[in-house]
Predict the 3D structure of the following.
Amino acid sequence: MDDNNEFEDFFVSTSDCAPENLLGALEAYSEIVKKIGSNDPLIFKDLLSGIAGSALFRRSGADKETEVFLWLSQIQRYAEIVVSNGGVQRFNGLSREALKEISKFSLDVGNMPTISTMLWQYGVVLIYLPQVAGMKTDGVFFKLPCGTPVIGLTLRYDRYDYFWFTLMHELAHVSIHYDQLDDPHFDCIEDLGEDILELEANQLAKESLISRSDWRSASVRRHRNQQELFNDAKRLSIHPAILAGFVRHDTENYTLFSSVINEISVKRMISANA
C-alpha cells in the first residue's frame, strides 16, 4: 500500500465524519507513527471511528496517552474478533442475580481458563492484556459500536482475590452503569477515590462475592487466624483467598494470610490454557 492510497478506504467509509475529527485523527496518527516508527492504517481507523480513538481525542495525545490508546485499541480489536466468531450472545443487561451466578465460578480455581468464554453467554467479552509502561490500570470497561460490553484486565497483580474483585467491579459497572458510561472507563482498584460510580461498583462487587450478613457474621474478622479463615470460607461458600483479601482490606493489614493470598498464580492458570 503506497502513501497516497493508505487511507483511501477509510475516507470513503467515514465521509460523514466532522472535519475537526478528521483533522484530529490525522494529527494524532502522525504523532503515533513517529512514536512507534511504523505506519499502520488500522491505527488511523481506530482513531477516527473506534471507541479508543474517541477517548484519545479528549485526552490530547501526550506520550502516556498514546500508549494507553494503543493498549485500548488492541483490546478493541481482539474483542471485535471474538464477537465476529459468533459465540457471544446478544447483551440484554446484567442483573444482580447474574453477578451472583458469575461469582460462584470463583469457588473452583479450575474454572479460571474458562471464565472469558463463560461470560459470552451473558453477552460480555473479557480480554486479558498486560498494561504498558506508564499505565496504572487494573481494568477498563467500554462498549463496542454493536453494544457489546467489553472488559479489559491487565492482571497487574497476580493474585486470585485481586482478579476476582477487579472482574466483579468491572461487571458491576456493566450491570448498573451501562447506560451512563459512553466512553472507556478505566479503573485502578487501589485508588478509586470517592466517586459515586466507583463506590456503587465497589459495593455491588463485594456483595456479589459475599453478602452483607455473611460478612458481618464472619468470625475471621475478629479472630484472624488461618483456621477461622478456612472455616468461614467453607461455611459462607467463598474462596479462602477472596475472603482473606476482604479481611486484609478491612483491617488495612496486608501481611495477614500471605501464604493463602500468594498460593494461586492467576497468570499461570490463564496462560497454561491459552
The chain has one domain: 50-271. The first strand starts at residue 125 and ends at 128.
